[in-house]
From TrEMBL:
Residues 133-152 have a biased composition (Pro residues). This is Hes family bHLH transcription factor 2. Residues 13-70 form the BHLH domain. Residues 123-160 are annotated as: Disordered. Pfam families: Hairy_orange (PF07527), HLH (PF00010). Residues 86-119 form the Orange domain. GO terms for biological process: regulation of DNA-templated transcription. The keyword Repressor applies. SUPFAM superfamilies: HLH, helix-loop-helix DNA-binding domain (SSF47459), Orange domain-like (SSF158457).
Length: 160
């Protein structure tokens, strides 16, 4: 069948595998920190090239500070009507985009400003059910945004 194993063999195997497992664990940590650095630097508006050699502690500290600055959402005991929570969520997204978009530098400043202004105007009359054909007392946007498809009744689910 097989050769009998001695107790010392298992101990030796563990002893020889320990450095290999530790090396893999450190590699996973370093890979994750590299990914975290790549995610957090653009959100903070910093160039990756200027921060190519950051210490692990610096990456973690920047991430902690960024997360601490995020607005905390408080959930009241009685939930607000769905329309209000939808509108507040939309406004929170626009506010977050207003902070992140200029820092990323993906769009030209003029285009970024136009986009943010358009989204702010639409937030004034955005509801989950339907939107009016034109915003009250606001000029029509230069390019109409695609409207979401009509939503069926809440009790009926359709995949389209």
């Amino acid at each position: 069948m097989g050769l009998p194993r001695r107790e010392g063999d298992a101990a030796e195997l563990r002893k020889s595998l320990k450095p290999l497992l530790e090396k893999r664990r450190r590699a996973r940590i370093n890979d994750s920190l590299g990914q975290l650095k790549g995610l957090i630097l653009p959100l903070l508006g910093r160039e990756n090239s200027r921060y190519s050699k950051l210490e692990k502690a610096d990456i973690l500290e920047m991430t902690v500070h960024f997360l601490q600055e995020l607005p905390a959402f408080s959930y009241p005991a009685i939930a607000p009507p769905p329309t209000d929570s939808y509108r507040e969520g939309y406004r929170a997204c626009v506010a977050r985009l207003a902070r992140v978009l200029p820092a990323c530098g993906v769009l030209e400043p003029a285009v970024s400003a136009r986009l943010l202004e358009h989204l702010r105007r639409r937030s004034a009359y955005t509801t989950p059910e339907a939107r009016p054909a034109s915003p009250p007392s606001a000029p029509s946007p230069p390019a109409p945004a695609p409207s979401p498809p009509a939503q069926p009744s809440p009790g009926l689910w359709r995949p389209w």
